[in-house]
Structures are given as C-alpha cells and as structure tokens.
Task: inverse folding
C-alpha cells in the first residue's frame, strides 16, 4: 500500500439545475487537482445538479449523464467522485455519486437513507440505493468508499463499506445552516463534526467529509468540509460559508496506529442479526 | 429575551449580507438594492445590511413620510442615510400624502384603515419604480414577527422582492441593530407602521413583541402546545391563542394567491419547481 493518498476536496457552490455551469466548475477543480497531483478528488452531494431540485429532479438526469461522460472522457490520472441525479431505471431516479478513476467509470453508489423530514423531500423524488452498490474502489493501492449525507447519521452504511475493506470513507454532504443562535457553531455544524469523528473512530478509518457551500433557494449550505484521521482528530478544515479547495495527504501510519489500538478488529455479526429483526 | 435564544449577531450579519449580495447580483442579475427607510429599527438594519452587501454606491434609500410620520422618525431616517454612507444622489425624500390624497379624492373618501393600506401601497409603487430605474430590487424590511402574525399590508410593505431579515424576530432585529452600531433610540424604538397618528404595534395588537416573539418561538420553532406556552411564559392562555390565531388567519398574506386546479398539473401543490430555475 502506498504510504500516502493525496485527497482533493472541492467544497463548491453548485447552481441549482444548471449542469453546464456546474460542469465548468468541476473542470476548474479537476485542473487544480491535477496540478496538485491529487489522487482522489471528491465533490459534495449532487454537485453536478444542485440539491433542492424538487420537480427539476425529473428533468435533469440526462444532462447530468452527459456531464459525467465528459468527466470520464477527460481520462484524468486521478479518481474523481462527483454527485449527480441518475436515472437508474426509466423514470426511476437515485441520488448518486460516480467513481471515475483513470478515465474509467468504475461504478455508482446511491444514497441509502433518503431524508423526508423538515426541509428534505428526497424520498419523494428518489429511490433508495442498494446495499450491493456500497462498494469499495481501489485506487493507488488505497481502498475508498462513499456514503451520502443522511447515510452518515446511521452507523451502518459507513460500517458496511468499512467492513468491505474501505480505508477511506467519503461522506458527500449537502448540509444547510440552521439555528444561528447563541455563540460559536450552529447545531448542524456541531453535530456533523461529532458524526464525522465518530464514523472515523468506530471504523478506524479516514473520514473525508465534503459539504456543499452557498445558497440554494431559502437554504445556505455551510461548507466546513473536513478530514478526520482514524484516531478521531480533525486534521484539515475547509472554510465555512464560502467555496474552498483542500488538499490533504492521508497517511497509512495513522491507519495502522489507530487499528492497533482499537477494537475495530472485533466484529459481532450477531449484533447485526439481532438488529435485522427489529424495526 | 426570556426563552428566546440570543442571536449569533456576528455570524448573522455576515451571513445575511453574503446572501443578499448573491440574491441581488447572481440570482436576480441586478446591480442595486432599494430600501424604504422609516426611522424604525427594521428598515435601519435592512439599509445597513444592504449597504454592506452591495456597497453604499449600489444602495438607494427613500424616505417616504406621510402626515402621520413623527418628526423624530424623519430625523432617525436621516441618521440611517448618513450612517450607511450612501452618496448624496442615492437618497431622496418623497412625501406620499399628495398621491394618497389624489386617490382619496378619486375614490370618494377612505376610512382610516383604507387610507393606511393605500399609503403602504403607494410607498410600494414608488420603491418599485425607483428599483426599476436603478436596475435594482426592492429589499423588504419585514421581520419574522410581523410576517408571522401578518402585521403588514398585503402588496404594500409586503410587496417586495426579498426579505433579508424575515428570519429574525423583532427582538433579534433589535440585537442586530446594536451589533451593527445603530443607536439605542433606533434599536429600541417602539414598533409602529405609523399609518395613522399614534398607531403603535403594541397598542393595536394588545401585546408587545417581547411576548409575541417568545410565543412564536415556542409555538413554531419548539412546537409546544399552547397551554404549555402559557405556563412557561406565565401569561394567560388567551394571549397565546390570540397570537397563534393571528398567524393562522394571515396565512393568505404569506402565500401566492390560490389557483383552482383544472389541468393535470397547475400552479400550487403539484407545481414544485424551485425559485432558482436557471
């Protein structure tokens, strides 16, 4: 395994429903990443399409597929992971990320937990993904897997890709700001950091949290993307409330140390069997 | 403040200015922001935020007094004009009474409330005309308390392009005003639409914003039952019911007019396109 994996985090502001403009911006970040010799370039949830699409969700998959093909066609020497609406079957849409590695489309992962509370309406528009697609992608001898936003608020999706071999868990997010009361961080900022740290520690893996930034309708995504080491330390942070690009080297020694001194090697399948019986 | 949490004023000031800049420039593709400045706290805060967001040179402030505007409001509005630092050619005083009187004569006399609403709508017409001239948007000054209880004139002060402080209770607007460096006499001025002499919000509503804001917060952000709100605030249940009743009855003022559905897909519940639709 290579000693380090260089990760680029494109904390971008996507324009709702404007795939052409969003693709242009992806290419800007891809070129920046190439100059920085990035191995893995990750984008936020639905980065090619925008998030609060509502009825545009039905009409945007074709444009998104064309944009994805352009990214594939560039044959970049890195693994690129953008987010998009994907027509998984005719008339059936999923909230997905694509793995484009070395100019080849390695596959898709679709969000398992579609939120439909508060401002969220994903279950109205999208079909939930399949656990079979929660795969690990090998690149530069590192093993990487993705989950999407709400997936991280449940322990199992991260655990699934981790137990399938991932050393890096990418969380692609579109988290809007809420509750600008009191002082310091808002509730979503506080909770997301706790979630990212927890997913890293419980899986003794790197967590790369890449959040959207900027306005979309009434919402404003707060950015604040971060990398958490397998030991649970936030080792890099992007700016909040504005676009940013982070380049971070993940280090194999941190993985080794964390796994030596954790109970990660224990896995109780029977706990999951018991959970499967419950509602 | 009572049960209302304090506002994170530093972040909110930055956040609102950032959003307003994007909304005017990138979303709407306009240059300027136009604000009607009354001398009250809402318009003072909105004017300062607009100048921060777009620059004083792209901010236009209008004093639109009527016979019921007290002199101290005009002085305070002038203070806001100076405080925001807009250039001389970016502010103007336009007295609205001649227009309202012409309407009154043509319509054969209006009641006090009719005249008050007409005054608010005349101001709206003036602001939109100036916004068009300056390639700008009309930046609304309504706060969350007023929007929720419906304490505004439909298509009057409600007839604006964007509501940057629509997420702030009146209590929070006052906090933000102090943070933005506005004087206490403006920050804590008793709220009033001044649509007729002596009109105050508290006089008309029978309860002050300090209490209203706590009721609104507990009922709609914390989703407590009305009896519990009364108990927590140590107030009468009928006060809570009155405020909640205002919110319910004014729902029509906050929504686009209803369209009766005929086709397979009409405006309203199954027309779910986002505001940003590029």
Result:
């Amino acid at each position: 395994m290579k000693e380090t994996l260089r990760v680029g985090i494109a904390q971008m502001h996507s324009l709702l429903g404007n795939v052409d403009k969003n693709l242009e911006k992806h290419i800007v970040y891809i070129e920046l990443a190439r100059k920085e010799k990035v191995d893995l370039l990750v984008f936020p949830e639905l980065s090619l399409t925008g998030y609060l699409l509502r009825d545009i969700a039905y009409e945007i998959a074709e444009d998104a597929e064309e944009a994805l093909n352009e990214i594939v066609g560039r044959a970049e020497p890195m693994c690129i992971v953008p987010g998009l609406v994907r027509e998984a079957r005719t008339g059936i849409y999923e909230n997905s990320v694509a793995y484009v590695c070395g100019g080849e489309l390695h596959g898709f992962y679709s969000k398992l937990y579609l939120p439909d509370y508060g401002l969220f309406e994903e279950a109205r528009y999208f079909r939930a993904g399949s656990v079979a697609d929660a795969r690990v992608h090998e690149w530069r001898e590192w093993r990487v897997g993705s989950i999407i936003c709400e997936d991280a608020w449940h322990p199992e999706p991260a655990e699934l890709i981790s137990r399938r071999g991932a050393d890096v868990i990418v969380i692609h997010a579109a988290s809007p700001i809420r509750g600008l009361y009191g002082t310091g961080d808002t509730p979503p900022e506080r909770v997301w950091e706790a979630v990212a740290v927890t997913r890293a520690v419980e899986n003794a893996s790197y967590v790369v949290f890449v959040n959207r930034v900027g306005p979309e309708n009434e919402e404003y995504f707060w950015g604040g993307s971060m990398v958490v080491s397998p030991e649970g330390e936030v080792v890099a942070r992007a700016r909040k409330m504005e676009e940013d690009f982070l380049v971070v080297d993940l280090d194999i020694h941190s993985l080794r140390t964390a796994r030596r001194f954790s109970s990660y090697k224990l896995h109780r399948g029977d706990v999951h069997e018991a959970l499967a019986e419950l509602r | 403040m009572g049960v209302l949490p304090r506002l994170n004023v530093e972040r909110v000031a930055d956040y609102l200015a950032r959003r307003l800049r994007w909304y005017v420039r990138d979303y709407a593709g306009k240059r300027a922001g136009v604000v009607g400045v009354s001398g009250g706290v809402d318009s003072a805060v909105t004017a300062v935020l607009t100048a921060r967001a777009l620059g004083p040179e792209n901010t236009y402030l209008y004093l639109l007094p009527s016979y019921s505007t007290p002199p101290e409001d005009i002085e305070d509005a002038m203070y806001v004009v100076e405080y925001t630092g807009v250039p001389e050619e970016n502010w103007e005083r336009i007295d609205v009474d001649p227009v309202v009187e012409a309407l009154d004569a043509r319509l054969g006399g209006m009641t006090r409330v009719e005249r008050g609403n007409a005054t608010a709508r005349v101001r709206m017409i003036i602001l939109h005309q100036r916004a068009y001239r300056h390639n700008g948007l009309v930046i609304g000054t309504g706060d969350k308390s007023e929007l929720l209880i419906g304490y505004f004139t439909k298509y009057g002060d409600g007839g604006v392009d964007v509501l940057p402080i629509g997420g702030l209770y009146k209590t929070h607007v006052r906090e933000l005003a102090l943070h933005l460096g506005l004087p206490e006499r403006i920050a804590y001025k008793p709220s009033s639409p001044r649509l007729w002499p002596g009109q105050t919000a508290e006089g008309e509503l029978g309860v002050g914003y300090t209490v209203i804001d706590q009721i609104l917060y507990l009922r709609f952000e914390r989703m407590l039952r009305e009896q519990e709100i009364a108990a927590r605030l140590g107030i009468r249940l009928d006060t809570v019911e009155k405020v909640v009743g205002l919110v319910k009855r004014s729902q029509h003022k906050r929504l686009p007019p209803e369209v009766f559905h005929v086709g397979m897909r009409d405006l309203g519940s199954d027309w779910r396109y986002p505001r940003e639709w590029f």
Remarks:
- Chain B has a mean pLDDT of 96.
- The two ends of chain B are 41 Å apart (CA to CA).
- Residues 100 and 115 of chain B are 7 Å apart (CA to CA).
- The longest helix of chain B spans residues 112-133.
